[in-house]
Please model this.
Amino acid sequence: MTSWDPARYLRFGDERTRPACELASRIALVAPRSVIDLGCGPGNSTQVLRQRWPNARVCGLDSSPEMIIAAQQAYPDQEWLLANIVGWAPDVPHDVLFSNAALQWVDNHIILARHLFNQVAPGGALAFQIPSGAYSALRSFIHDIAQDKAWGSRMDGPRAALTMEEPNVYYDALAPLATSVDIWETEYFHVMESPASIVEWISSTGLRPFLAALDSAKEKQRFVAFLTERVTAAYVTRSDGRVLFPFKRIFVIAYS
Ligand SMILES: C[S@@+](CC[C@H](N)C(=O)[O-])C[C@H]1O[C@@H](n2cnc3c(N)ncnc32)[C@H](O)[C@@H]1O
Model:
């Protein structure tokens, strides 16, 4: 697992936190007592949960030491747990299991989602958001560039690092267990300063495993240069000089 850079991740903090706000606002629970943010990153999504339910016990969990340190530094009065979502089994069920933009990093997260649902207290909810499978041309550009023979087999791991399924798949996995499932997609159109900003956005998330697999700074620069060229050609500059970056996300809430 490559390391995360919390400061770079938060460069687009408002845009990355907005789906967490929209997901939390849709969870139809008035006063849950225990809430956990799985894959909490630097704590941005955890703050959304604290604001939504100020009287709940809210904990953030992440497997990245860099992210947990950043969260602890920014919010020292809160509870943070350095742990892997896979294999996380609380002593007592939680009222809300929440995850914003994290489960796509876990292999077999359909099985994981069912496992997590079993950790939800009666009357509680599992709520998560992940990017949609075909979230933009950007992902296909990265995968195309990864085909370049120059990288050899080093791209095999990065290609498999992220998995995203269609809404039907999440519904079929959770509906047999849940009393009800609320599931929807939203497409955001992020206003970016330039095509290079889109590359910067993805450099701290989906592009990270690809760059980490390359040995030299020269190779990483070459990969980024190819991507910038493709992005510049594909994303049209608007009349004010900015660029719209379409980004579709899936939201799922399963109630126990
Ligand atoms: C894109 S960030 C999302 C951060 C935050 N939840 C937000 O809303 O912006 C994904 C986070 O998931 C964490 N993560 C990925 N796989 C994980 C796992 N198996 N266990 C725990 N955390 C994981 C990463 O370390 C990273 O901090």
Q: What stands out?
A: The beta strands are 34-38, 57-62, 79-82, 94-100, 120-131, 180-192, 243-255. The mean pLDDT is 94. Residues 4, 16-17, 20, 39-41, 44-45, 62-64, 67, 84-86, 100-102, 105-106, 205 surround S-adenosylmethionine (CB under 6 Å).
